[in-house]
Amino acid sequence: MPLKSKQPRIAPLEPPFDAETGAVLGELGPPLQLFRVWARRPGLARGVASWGRYYFSRRSALSVRQRELVIDRTTALCGADYEWGVHVAVYAEKAGFDDVQLRSLAAGGPADGCWSPEDRAVLAAVDELHATSDLSDEAWAGLVAAVGEDGALDLLLVCGWYHAVSFTVRALRLPLEPGTERPDSP
């Protein structure tokens, strides 16, 4: 869905950054627009950075592929082009996604032939969570079989978090980062 405005509703901070902002941005990662908006509130930015250090580490019960299935599908379902573009540009290759799978994540579904049974279970859970804010017993059983109970718990939290991120980037009207694409153009 196209953005309604070309200007972000809250302007990301621009360099040069003061020492505190530079430190906070160092905790978040590359100075993406979203991170530069969060850095306007250092306490918020540090909280987000702490959350991200867990979910983007080996401590998460989800593999990189599973995590990116959740994030890419969630952001596509939410129409969060900004976040989709960032994740596909940075993680699609690491997650082992090909062009057919990226198109399926953007506009297909779990039943598409490009997915393994485990991937299908993850995607079915994400789709059901998005549609109902819950999981049926069947979806839960399939998810636990695919990722285990710890992975299922992490999936619930990652999916919920990326709904919040999707709401944020859409409502802020953040334009795509340079070098990223919308979900309809992988």
From TrEMBL:
One of its GO terms (molecular function) is peroxiredoxin activity. It comes from Amycolatopsis mongoliensis. SUPFAM superfamilies: AhpD-like (SSF69118). Residues 50-125 form the Carboxymuconolactone decarboxylase-like domain. InterPro entries: AhpD-like (IPR029032), CMD-like (IPR003779). Pfam families: CMD. This is Carboxymuconolactone decarboxylase family protein.
